Amino acid sequence: MRLFLSICLLVFVTTSVWAAESNKSVKEDKKQVNEWNTFATELYALHKDQLS
Question: What's the distance, Cα to Cα, between the start and end of the chain in Å?
């Protein structure tokens, strides 16, 4: 049982460190953010128009 818990802990710690490291390379793409915000705004306007 101790071996199993040790393996689980090792896997958890290893994947946590890997996830933290891989998250550092993610950067905000302002162009994409603006395009999605515009899309969401237009979609919401269409939704409101269809409801009225």
Answer: 63
Distance from C-alpha of 52 to C-alpha of 34, rounded to nearest angstrom: 27
For tokens 């915000």, the residue is 37
Q: What is the pTM of this model?
A: 0.49
pLDDT in tens, 1-20: 888 888 888 877 777 766 66
Question: Would you state the structure tokens that stand for residue 7, as one six-digit string?
Answer: 């393996």
**Residue whose entry in the numeric block shows the structure tokens 């802990």:** 9
- Over residues 18-39, the pLDDT tens digits come to 666 665 666 889 999 999 999 9
Tell me the DSSP string of 14-49.
HHHHHHHHHHTT----HHHHHHHHHHHHHHHHHHHH
